[in-house]
Amino acid sequence: MPEAVLVTRPEPGAEETGRHLAALGWEPVLAPALHLAPRPLAPPAGVQALLLTSRAAARAVRPGALPPSLPVLAVGEATAAEARHSGFVKAEAAAGDAAALAQLAAARLNPEAGPLLLAVGEGYGLEVALALRQRGFRVQRRVAYAAAPAPTLPDRARKALTDGRVVAALFFSPRSAHCAISLFHEAGLAETAASVMALALSPRVAAALQAAPTPLAWRAVQVADRPDQDSLLQLLGPRLAKR
Fold this sequence. Notes:
The protein is an alpha/beta fold. It folds into two domains: about 5-35 and about 150-240, Rossmann fold; about 35-145, 3-Layer(aba) Sandwich (Rossmann fold), CATH 3.40.50. It is built from nine helices and eleven strands. It has helices at about 15-25, 55-60, 75-85, 100-110, 125-135, 155-160, 175-185, 205-210, 230-235, and strands spanning about 5, 25-30, 35-40, 50, 70-75, 90-95, 115-120, 140-150, 165-170, 195-200, 220-225. The strands form two sheets. Strands 3-8-7-4-5-6 form a six-stranded mixed beta sheet, sandwiched between helices. A five-stranded parallel beta sheet has the order 2-1-9-10-11, sandwiched between helices. α4 (about 100-110) runs parallel beside α5 and α7 runs parallel beside α8. The protein is elongated. The model has no long low-confidence stretch (mean pLDDT about 90).
């Protein structure tokens, strides 16, 4: 039975996911579809709270430029934990997606208490900003990092796919899914997807996977019950249980 699992999320998250896969008995094959680079961020003065849309944003924004006591609202628990690890004292997690983050901010914060700092990746966060502005909040959206498509599949990933050892691939965002699909096509490996189960963090990620152009067609597309890594890995379970 194939035992390798392709991990398409960017670093440093890919390495962490790989450790979880190894603990479950799977062979992780890291193939980040995006490369992240932090951007200088000059926080505006007088913000009442910091909103974080991803762990990458949490890593890019450090206390110092902002007071550690500033309230932080994060898209999910992993992002909140990253913010706490960075030194922010108060970090509360939403239920895992942009709509949940906007709802949490609307419930916890007052539009009259000052602007919100929304730290995002380049091209991200527009949905959260719009939802909160419609509720009367002033939102200062700032780019904390940029994501660029990976130029090629790593050699180890190419070999694992060519040898038919990849049973599943993990996808964490629509953009990384689109980029990974392009990498499959450019490597001449689109047809290998027929033996790969695509595991999506959310319905939006699944939609991106299902829209892959021919000849790429996944063996199946499954969606995590909740938009977090633990739920995604539950779709796999321990490898020995699959025998």
